[in-house]
Amino acid sequence: MFADSHCHLNYKGVFEQQGDILARARARGVGAMLNISTRESEWDAVVATAEREPDVWASIGIHPHEADQHPDIDTARLVERAEHPRIVGIGESGLDYFYDHSDRPRQQASFRTHIAACRATGLPLIVHTRDAEDDTLAILREEMGKGAYKGVIHCFTASGAFADAALDLGFYISISGIVTFKNAHDLQATAARLPIDRLLIETDAPFLAPVPNRGKPGEPAFVADTAAFLARLRGEPIEVLAAGTVDNFFTLFDKAHRSRAQ
């Protein structure tokens, strides 16, 4: 069994094929998927998919690209929505200085709002960071000083030093199909040494299809290909890697574990 810790099943072009996409994922052994929201207008649809599909769970959050458009999303609003039993994470939130689609101070304020919601709910934080390692780490550390929370660095592409700092904070690290790209040498070196008890795998579908699916829209079925590459890279049996990352999924997203057991 595999777990896709981060996918977008309600994006245009995906939602219309959602049934077929889920069937293909299940046929390849994907038994758990976390459907991520990036703006408030998606929340209802993302949650509805999780209500309908027993192996899909949901997050609620505001992507840093969308921070300028959601100035009124506060901690109380996130906490209120997170009461739904199929919502198991807060995010994705964080900092993106590569595109700078939203004002940086607004991104930072939104990020802190999401962290506060994680502390209030006990749900994990799903972190997006791109070209913003220093500020991301500074905020994570500062906020950890206000009270503990847990989380995952999604679609990890940062430096090895950032990985070590995130692990020191107790975070998990999620590896996407980027690790299979031929020029991803630094990422491959980091992924090869991550402790298996802190490792997750994701597709970020419909993006970042791994080799041998480059050029296709990403989908959760492809998490099996990324897992196979990682197992070879790390010198681990695929069964060990798959079992470890699935256990990590349900450990981090404990609410999913509890709902699955019911």
From TrEMBL:
GO terms for molecular function: hydrolase activity. InterPro entries: DNase_TatD-rel_CS, Metal_Hydrolase, TatD-like, TatD/YcfH-like. This is TatD family hydrolase. Keywords: Hydrolase, Metal-binding. The keyword Ribonucleoprotein does not apply. It comes from Sphingomonas insulae. PANTHER family: D-AMINOACYL-TRNA DEACYLASE. Gene3D superfamilies: Metal-dependent hydrolases. Belongs to the metallo-dependent hydrolases superfamily. TatD-type hydrolase family.
